[in-house]
Description:
Layout: H1 4-13, H2 34-61, H3 68-75, H4 79-91, E1 95-103, E2 109-115, H5 116-123
Antiparallel strand pairs: 1-2
Amino acid sequence: MGSVKHFLMGRVQQGFDFEVARKPFDAPYQSKSPTSRAAAEAIAPRAGTLRRAVLDFLVGLGDHGATDEEMQTALKMGANTQRPRRVELVAGGFVVDSDQTRPTMSGKAATVWIATEYKIESRE
């Protein structure tokens, strides 16, 4: 399994900047919902740290990856906190769909997410 430092160095060399400065409203929110916007403003100062926790967790799992539900359980992070951080990591190119699924606690199929480096390595 790769290290987070190795993974991040590779991403920086490819032109990605993990610690991007974010404006308070960059966290996703529903534009017609004042409570959604307030939540986005409240999470903004911690969003980078939370993204890093999600990425560290996925890098540590290698090509096994994790579903959103598995990440939420392991990281003790609520769905409305974890899922947007994973979405941000996907948008930044750090996390990808593994093309695999695993059942959730309710038995429904869920996407397994992996750190991008493991998707690339599996194609070689």
